[in-house]
């Protein structure tokens, strides 16, 4: 086996394929690949050759990089062709951010509408190899949708723990539709997360939140694919929304491995953007201390409404290693940025647009240069939270100005009235 599990803090090593999410010391784990075995073999050209393949494992934007994800036989992989998400260049978004160029890597165009599919294809594949028939997660929506779909594909039972009343109907609909057993927990995401860890331990159910190190392995393919999209020319900045912090941890881990293999000449700087009401990483970074959870995290961007993120150490490791930053943005800034992204014809769920709001704030403060090459990660599809989108344009959200509202207009069922309406500015 060319991989093992290693503690993020004390560096204790464990076998690569076992049911384990934490070190005995309580900290999270990394999957560690034997890069010496792979050095000289894995090159940009090596991965590019797979782009013309018709094999399912090559057509996946995760398994195309399988030597650095999970080297397993093709027949063992559970895939829906995840990844291969587009990179959009938008003049409208660049003008809003205040930069010459802003790219949008849209992970919301994965099969179930979010980046979670990248980690879930790996997590479910590992569960199959371990002979497990039931998987579970706590979720604000995207994880549950993805897990339910991939579990169904693999013929597994899926159990979802969601915070009662704090999940959008668009996301809840997916978990229900894909057949997951859904338990609404009294309390917030952090309460559901604590509970699901204990249940999985007692009932021998496989946990598929981002505390699972194999989830991170799939999600790091976001960075791999972005580089391939850009013909291996890294951006200056990658800007990422920050919730449970698996994405920022994963992207850094993958890029760092590419650096060590000589595929990447330099590391982009990472900027992680949190909502003001769910900002424990921002506070820890600003004050130079360990993370202190935020009780009862609050933000309209439900996908990042997390007060006690499990991957915070891994995330800070990547931010500091790249000379990056953590910023916070208000719900007003998030929803205004979303309106701009939507109007550019791209569209994304609210949490995604924290990256664009954060990039704008960092350009204004000159942390990011206006001439820097910026890539913002959009994490979820625009239809993940349609109710909030409509409420914004109708001016129905308490405490939020609908700065870029596009409300429907009432019009008589009369040709002249319609023509008059169309001729108005």
Q: What do the pLDDT scores average to?
A: 95
**Low-pLDDT residue intervals, each spanning 5 or more residues:** none
CATH architecture label of the domain at 87-113 and 215-394: 3-Layer(aba) Sandwich
Termini separation comes to 66 Å
Radius of gyration over all CA atoms, rounded: 21 Å
The neighbouring-strand order within the major sheet is 4-5-13-10-11-12
What is the SS-derived class?
alpha/beta
Question: Which H/E pattern describes the elements?
Answer: EEEHHHEHEHEHEHEHEHHEHEHHEHHEHH
Global shape: globular
What is the CATH first-level class name of the domain at 87-113 and 215-394? Alpha Beta
User: What is the CATH topology classification name of the domain at 87-113 and 215-394?
Assistant: Rossmann fold
Q: Please outline the major beta sheet.
A: 6 strands, mixed
The level of helicity is 25-40%
Give the strand tally. 13
Which helices and strands, and how do they pair?
Elements: E1 3-7, E2 13-15, E3 29-33, H1 35-38, H2 44-49, H3 56-59, E4 87-89, H4 91-97, E5 102-106, H5 116-129, E6 134-138, H6 142-153, E7 157-163, H7 169-177, E8 181-185, H8 189-203, E9 206-207, H9 213-219, H10 221-229, E10 237-241, H11 246-261, E11 269-275, H12 280-287, H13 312-321, E12 325-329, H14 331-343, H15 354-364, E13 374-378, H16 386-394, H17 415-423
Parallel strand pairs: 5-13, 6-7, 6-9, 7-8, 10-11, 10-13, 11-12
Antiparallel strand pairs: 1-2, 1-3, 4-5
Helix pairs in contact: 5-6, 5-9, 6-7, 9-11, 10-11, 11-13, 14-15
């Amino acid at each position: 086996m060319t991989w093992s599990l290693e503690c993020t803090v004390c560096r204790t090593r464990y076998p690569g394929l076992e049911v384990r999410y934490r070190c005995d010391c309580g900290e999270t784990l990394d999957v560690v690949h034997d890069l010496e075995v792979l050095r000289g073999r894995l090159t940009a050209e090596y991965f590019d050759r797979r782009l013309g393949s018709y094999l399912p494992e090559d057509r996946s934007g995760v398994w195309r990089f399988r030597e650095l994800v999970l080297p397993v036989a093709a027949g063992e992989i559970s895939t829906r062709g995840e990844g291969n998400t587009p990179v959009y260049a938008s003049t409208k978004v660049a003008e809003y951010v205040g930069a010459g160029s802003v790219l949008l890597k849209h992970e919301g165009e994965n099969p179930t509408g979010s980046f979670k599919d990248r980690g879930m294809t790996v997590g479910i594949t590992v569960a199959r190899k371990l002979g497990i028939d039931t998987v579970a997660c706590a979720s604000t929506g995207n994880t549950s949708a993805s897990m339910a779909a991939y579990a169904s594909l693999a013929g597994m039972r899926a159990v979802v723990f969601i915070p009662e009343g704090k999940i959008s109907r668009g996301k809840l609909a997916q978990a229900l539709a894909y057949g997951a057993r859904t338990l609404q927990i009294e309390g917030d995401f952090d309460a559901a997360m604590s509970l699901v860890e204990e249940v999985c331990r007692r009932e021998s159910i496989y946990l598929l939140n981002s505390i699972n190190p194999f989830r991170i392995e799939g999600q790091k393919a976001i960075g791999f694919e972005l580089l391939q999209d850009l013909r291996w020319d890294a951006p200056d900045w990658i800007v990422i929304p920050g919730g449970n912090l698996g994405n920022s941890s994963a992207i850094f881990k993958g890029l760092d491995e590419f650096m060590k293999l000589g595929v990447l000449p330099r590391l982009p700087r990472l900027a992680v953007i949190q909502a003001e009401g769910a900002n424990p990483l921002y506070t820890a970074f600003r004050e130079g201390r360990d993370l202190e959870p935020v009780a009862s995290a609050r933000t309209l961007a439900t996908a990042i409404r997390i007060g006690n993120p499990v991957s915070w150490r891994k995330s800070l490791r990547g931010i500091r290693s790249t000379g990056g930053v953590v910023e916070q943005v208000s719900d007003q800034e998030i929803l205004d940025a979303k309106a701009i992204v939507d109007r550019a014809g791209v569209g994304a769920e609210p949490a995604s647009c924290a990256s664009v709001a954060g990039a704008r704030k960092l350009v204004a403060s000159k942390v990011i240069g206006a001439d820097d090459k910026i890539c913002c990660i959009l994490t979820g599809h625009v239809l993940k939270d349609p109710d909030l989108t409509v409420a914004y344009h109708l001016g129905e959200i308490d405490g939020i100005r609908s700065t870029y509202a596009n409300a429907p207009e009432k019009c008589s069922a009369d040709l002249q009235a319609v023509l008059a309406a169309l001729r108005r500015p």
